[in-house]
Amino acid sequence: MYKKLLLSVVSLSVFASFTPAEAHWSAIERPGQARKDFVISRDEVVNSLQNQKLYALVEYGVISKIFVWNEAKPNEFVTSYIPGYSLPIDMIEEVVFVAQMPDSLSVNYVDNSGEVKAEPINHGDNVAVVEELPIDSATKVSLPTQNPVQVISSAVASDYSTSMTVAPMVVNDLNKSVEVQVITNGISFTSIATDNSATPITINNLPSDAFVSVQTVIRDKTTNEEIILQNVVTKTPDAQIPVVANARDVAADKATIAAPVVAASSVGSNGSRSATIEFAGIPDFDPTRTIASIMVVGPGGATTSVGVNGTGGAITIGDLGLDSTYRLTLVIRDLNSGEETLIQGANL
């Protein structure tokens, strides 16, 4: 992973960044895409968690959770990770680690025109690690937060879930569609189409006291090209949920459940790909305690999620780009605790 990303760094250049001294990150500029590439030094990979510190859980090179560690709440869904001192930085896509986050939840960088911009850190972003990363004092400026989607309010339901009401972006071009997507722990997401106006919409069943990513997907109806704009992550209210034990054994699931695989792929008359994805059965699957889905995430961050049951089987995903690479994941969500287990498949 490090070697591959280093080649990208040479061609795209890493933009020197400023964040508070306790968390130094750099960003690679990728306009119009949700999934971004960040680079951190080994010093930012933690050996142990400290109370009330802000962290990112990075699974297989991708941020799956942004959280503040609270020793009073033992169920933070962070069960095991590789400490920084022994992290194999050339094998990032095969391990899980925790990195300290900048308090700003974003990374400043200098773009190709010389302008200093802020890039928010979100769920689904890529993270690479290098031994050392120099700090460029020229980017030590304070930038205002600019969120494409306005978060109007949030609320707690009787089942301890939370909801968020947002005002979407206004897009007057009728040849473009607009969706608001909210991404939570484990990179599961909700996507709601808008009427291209700022009419408020409400997203329900969000986790309590958790950082969520809010992004806008603007899609050209003729070319199918997408522009994805992201907010700085937003925290949902604390619903004071009673601590509940997991219904499933996360370690056992990761050790025994096979990763999803691509069984077949073909090109349609419209020039796009479709793929048949096979997935294994999930032992002791109880739909009252567990839900599962196959997630296919594209290079720009656009996501397709298909619910599956515990018996195993196959699904077909269409409208895939011919030259694009997609990340394939089986997501198992424990309904007792809300914890999500990610079982990574080969890229599609």
Description:
Helix content is 5%, strand content 40%. It is mainly beta. Mean pLDDT is 81; it is low at 1-22. It is globular, with a radius of gyration of 20 Å. Strands 11, 12, 14, 15 and 16 form a five-stranded antiparallel β-sheet that branches. The protein has two helices and 23 strands. It has helices spanning 2-12, 250-256, and strands at residues 25-28, 37-41, 54-59, 62-68, 96-100, 106-110, 116-120, 126-130, 150-156, 162-167, 176-183, 189-193, 201-206, 211-220, 226-230, 234-235, 261-267, 273-279, 290-297, 303-308, 313-320, 327-334, 340-344. It has three domains: 2-139, no CATH class; 150-235, Sandwich (Immunoglobulin-like); 250-344, Immunoglobulins (Immunoglobulin-like).
Distinctive features:
mainly beta; Immunoglobulin-like; 3 domains; 4-stranded antiparallel β-sheet; 348 residues
H/E series: HEEEEEEEEEEEEEEEEHEEEEEEE
So how many helices?
2
- Largest beta sheet, briefly? 5 strands, antiparallel
End-to-end CA span: 17 Å
- The amount of beta strand, in percent, is 35-45%
Strand count: 23
* Residue windows where pLDDT falls under 50 for at least 5 positions: 1-22
> Gyration radius, to the nearest Å?
20 Å
Which structural class fits the helix and strand makeup? mainly beta
Average pLDDT for all residues: 81
Question: Looking at the structure, what is the overall shape?
Answer: globular
Number of domain modules: 3
Q: Kindly state the percentage of residues in helix.
A: under 10%
